Amino acid sequence: MTQNLPIETVEALVIGAGPAGLMAAEELGRAGVQVIIVDAMPSPARKFLMAGKSGLNLTKSEDMGVFLSQFSPCPPALKMALDAFGPTEVSAWAESLGQSVFIGSTGRVFPKTMKASPLLRAWLARLDGYGVGLRRQWRLIGFDQKTAVFETPDGERRIQAKATVLAMGGASWARLGSNGAWAESMLPAQIAPFKPANSALSFSWSPHMARHFGRAVKGVSLCCGPYRSRGEFVISKRGLEGGGIYSVSRGVRDGHKLYIDLLPDMPLDIVTSTLNRRKSKETVANFLRKSLRLTPEKIALVMEFSRPLPSDLAPVLKGLKIAAATLRPMDEAISTAGGLRFDGLSETLELAYMQGVFACGEMLDWEAPTGGYLLTACLATGKLAGQAASDVVRASQGE
Ligand SMILES: Cc1cc2nc3c(=O)[nH]c(=O)nc-3n(C[C@H](O)[C@H](O)[C@H](O)COP(=O)(O)OP(=O)(O)OC[C@H]3O[C@@H](n4cnc5c(N)ncnc54)[C@H](O)[C@@H]3O)c2cc1C
C-alpha cells in the first residue's frame, strides 16, 4: 500500500452497494450525514438485480415468531434489527419507493412488477436526493489504522470516515461482486468459514433423465434431517434445483440423507392398497401414471433412484431416497452461511475491535431459507448499522 497519498475525509463511508449497504446509506442520508458509498463493481446492487430476475421475493408475511424461527442463528442484534424492520416495514418501505407489493398464496411478498430494477432506480434516486455519493469500481483492499484503502481505476485511494459501514455481501455469485474476498484479506480472526446455503444439488444423471431436464416436479414434500419443505423443484442437466430443494439443502450440507414424498397427500396404506390392484401384465410405469397420477418426471426419479424396483413400492413413493446427493459449488448457491461472527459485534453491529466500523447484510454469520428472509435481514441489518453509524457521526459533532 502507498503511504503518502492524500487522505479524503468524509462523515460516513459505506462499503458495498448491495441492498444492505444501500439501506445503511439511506439511513445516514436521511439523518443529514455526508455519505459516500463505494462498490467494487461498475454498477451497484448486481445480485439484487439478479434476485429480481426470477421474481423479487422481498419478504414473507407471517407471524413474527414463525418469521424469526427461520433464522439460525438469530443472535440478539439480528433479532433487534428484524423486530424493528420486519415484513410489515419492508413492504411499507417498498411502497414508499412507488413499488406496490402483493402477498402470494404462501405468504411471500413481491413487488407487483416482480422485478428489482424499478425499485432500485427509485431507491438510487432517493439516495441521490439525500446527496449520497456513489463511487464505482472502488474495491476495499484493507484498512490502514482507521483509513480505508481502495484499489480504483485511478490507482490506490484512501478515505477516512467518522463512521464506516461494511456491506460486502457473502461468498456466492462472485461475478456479481459478492466474492467473499474481504474475509481472507481483512478480518480473518472474526470470521466463521463460508458455507453454501440454499444450494442446488449435483447429480450425474443416467441418459434416460435427459428428456426431463427443465421440467418441474410439483406437489412433493422433502425431508432431510431436521429440514422439511413442501413445494416443487426442477430437474436440471446438472442436478436438482429450486425452492423445495434449497430449503432442505442445509440438511444435505450437514450430512443427512434426503427423502422425497412423491404423494404427500396420500397416506401410505392407501398407496399400498392402490399398488396391490396392479395386474401383472401392466407395466409399473403405466400403473403409476394411471392409478396414482404420477407425472413422467416423478416416475423417472423413481426409476433413477430406486432401481432395481423393490416388490413393495409404496415406501419408495412415500420416501424416495435420493442417493449420493451433493451440493453444487458454493459460488452457485443463492446465499452463504458464515461470515463476520456476532460475538465480535456489538448489539448495534459495531466491530468490537474497530470502533466506529459497523457491518451488515449477508457478510454477517446468519443463515435463513429463501422466501424473502434473506433480503429482509439484509435490509434490517443495513438499517440498524446505518442508524448506529449516524449516531456516531452526530456524537462526534457534539464533541
Ligand atoms: C439468483 C438469486 C436469487 C435471489 N433471490 C432472492 C429473493 O427473491 N429474495 C431474497 O430475500 N433473497 C434473494 N437472493 C439473495 C439476496 O440477493 C442476497 O442475500 C442479498 O443481495 C445480499 O445483500 P448484501 O447487500 O448483503 O450483499 P450483496 O448483494 O452481495 O452486495 C455486496 C456488494 O458489495 C460489493 N463488494 C464486495 N466486496 C467488495 C470490496 N472489497 N470493496 C467494495 N465493494 C465490495 C459487491 O460488489 C456487491 O455489490 C437471491 C440471490 C440470488 C443469487
Overview of this protein structure:
It is built from 13 helices and 19 strands. By secondary structure, the chain is α+β, with helices and mostly antiparallel strands. Strands 1, 2, 6, 7, 8, 9 and 19 form a 7-stranded mixed beta sheet that branches. The chain has a 7-stranded antiparallel beta sheet with strand order 16-15-12-13-14-11-17. Strand 12 (216-224) and strand 13 (227-236) form a beta hairpin. Bound molecules: flavin-adenine dinucleotide. Residues 15-21, 38-41, 46-48, 50-51, 56-57, 139-140, 167-169, 173, 177-178, 182, 334-335, 361-362, 372, 374-375, 378 line the site of flavin-adenine dinucleotide. Flavin-adenine dinucleotide is lined by residues 15-21, 38-41, 46-48, 50-51, 56-57, 139-140, 167-169, 173, 177-178, 182, 334-335, 361-362, 372, 374-375, 378.
Q: How does the helix and strand content classify structurally?
A: alpha+beta
* Count of extended strands: 19
Alpha-carbon distance between the termini? Answer: 32 Å
Total domain units? 2
Overall geometric form: elongated
Bound molecules: flavin-adenine dinucleotide
Describe the structure concisely for a colleague.
By secondary structure, this protein is an alpha+beta fold. Helix content is 32%, strand content 25%.
Write the layout of secondary structure elements.
Layout: E1 7-15, H1 19-30, E2 35-39, H2 46-51, E3 59-60, H3 64-69, H4 76-84, H5 87-96, E4 101-103, E5 108-111, H6 117-129, E6 133-136, E7 139-144, E8 147-152, E9 155-166, H7 181-185, E10 191-197, E11 201-202, E12 216-224, E13 227-236, E14 239-241, H8 243-253, E15 258-261, H9 268-275, H10 284-291, H11 296-305, H12 314-318, E16 320-322, E17 326-327, E18 335-340, E19 357-359, H13 373-398
Parallel strand pairs: 1-2, 1-9, 2-6, 9-19
Antiparallel strand pairs: 3-5, 4-5, 7-8, 8-9, 10-18, 11-14, 11-17, 12-13, 12-15, 13-14, 15-16
Helix pairs in contact: 1-6, 1-13, 4-13
This protein binds flavin-adenine dinucleotide.
